[in-house]
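Input/output pair, single chain:
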Amino acid sequence: MTAAHRSGRNLSLTVRARQSAIRVLRAARKIRGHRPPGPGRPPRVPAGWVLAPPDFVGIGAQKAGTSWWSALIHEHPDVHRGSGQPKEMHFFDGYWEQPFTNADLERYTRYFPRPPGGSAGEWTPGYMIDFWTPELLRRAAPDARILVLLRDPLERYRSGMAHTDDM
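Output:
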């Protein structure tokens, strides 16, 4: 088998895997009556502040310290989060099935007001496993730093179990 043939075969497998994943997501959505969570309304923009794509987007495994890192970063006086904005926006969750338009790109930018020279960003760990999100992030925030947090899988499991036991 030639390298070109293998490459074409791998591409075909990737396309089929994506199509299968979309079918599973559609079925799960119907079964659960799921509506993707969203970020809510964009925050108010104080006079003199600017809107721009995020400077950073944090992703990573659950129970890997994303809340802690988010809190540390947002304590810095030059890093801003819109009033009432949650840590996890889940902005891109619904775009696995629908197109991401220029209007959506503009709407995403409205979630990141900051004074001139300030920084803004978000943390949504789930973006790491959503196959459609990297391309959308590349379009929506091409200059953003992607902050990836990982954790030892066994420690993550133990933490998740402890969290479940506390519920």
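The chain has two domains: 1-35, 50-166. The first helix runs from residue 3 to 32.
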